[in-house]
Amino acid sequence: MTKQEINILVRELKKIFDIVRLVDVTITTQYSLDKNGELIEEPFRCFSVWNKNERCENCISAKAFSKKTQMTKFEFINHDVYHVISKYVEIDGTPYMLEMVSKLSDETLFSAYGQEQFVDTISTYNRKLYVDSLTGAYNRRYFEDQLLGLKNEHAVAMMDVDNFKMINDTYGHKAGDKALKTIVNTIQKNMRNTDALIRYGGDEFLIVFSDVAVDVFGCRLESIRKAVHEIVMDEYPQLRLSLSIGGIYSINEDIDFINEADKMLYDAKKSKNVVRYKTLN
Predict the structure, then answer these.
(1) Domain end: 66, 100, 130, which one?
(2) Do the bridges between strand 29-33 and strand 204-209 make them parallel or antiparallel, or are there none, so unpaired?
(3) Are the beta carbons of 227 and 245 closer than 8 angstroms?
(4) Residue that finishes a domain, picked among 103, 130, 157
């Protein structure tokens, strides 16, 4: 699709939808078309249209972008309901998401439960879709649907709970579950809202840092390690918890961040309760 073709398409779609916009989800940037049909970067992030200060938890455009397809969802501002269609397009070879948004006001849609309950039901569904039920961290599906391919995440850390099998064998699975929940709560207290904590599998966790400075990255990982090691669980006061952490920082978007972080985690697990990280050009 050329710029001229997308300009014509957007002009026609605006006759139908309340909002029509082009988004680069990899950098959460919105674009408009000027009178000459040229793409102009807007001075705000794409999520600001939803009165949010950070990227949407269930970003349908990120999910559709990763699969190069079209998807739909409901979005909300307070109790107003919007239907969002997000379609993958390429304009002169560059990928974008074409978002088409309609505000829903048809009372027949909400008559069975009411508009407020409809909003609550969809919000609950969106959260259950991407949140680990035990720990409250994001799940692996969230990472694969929402974070893969983003360009402004240059720092990743893989973390493994030390001796977790021994904890389960010695104290029981109830203690193991409590340990995981306590560790996640502690990690989240040492993160920013813009970072994402994912339960990657079992007792292994992943943090994707958003726009963190390279000189802050190592300090952030060390503060997490230290905070977890200082945990005292009232039910199991003799149990000492610790993490092995492997991190990678790079502005090179072509590297396999997960694989590189996993290598550093492997090195950290040789000693346990340590941080190992490196920066790559």
Answers:
(1) 130
(2) unpaired
(3) no
(4) 130
Query: Which regions of the chain are under pLDDT 70?
Result: 106-116, 118-119, 121-123, 125-126, 149-153
User: Do 115 and 166 belong together in one domain?
Assistant: no
Residue type, 7: N
**Which residue bears the tokens 């990899």?**
26
- The count of domains in the chain is 2
168 and 49 inside one domain: no
Strands (E), the chain: 19-24, 29-33, 39-45, 70-77, 80-91, 94-104, 138-139, 155-161, 196-201, 204-209, 243-250, 275-280
Rounded to two decimals, what is the model's pTM? 0.73
What range defines the domain where residue 51 resides? 3-130
Q: In what order do the strands lie in the sheet containing 39-45?
A: 39-45, 29-33, 19-24, 94-104, 80-91, 70-77
The answer to whether residues 92 and 211 belong to one domain is no
Give residue-wise pLDDT tens across range 172-228: 999 999 999 999 999 999 999 889 999 999 999 999 998 888 889 999 999 999 999
Alpha-carbon torsion angle 108, 112, 117, 123, nearest 10: -70
CB 233 within 8 Å of CB 179: yes
Which residue type does 11 have? R
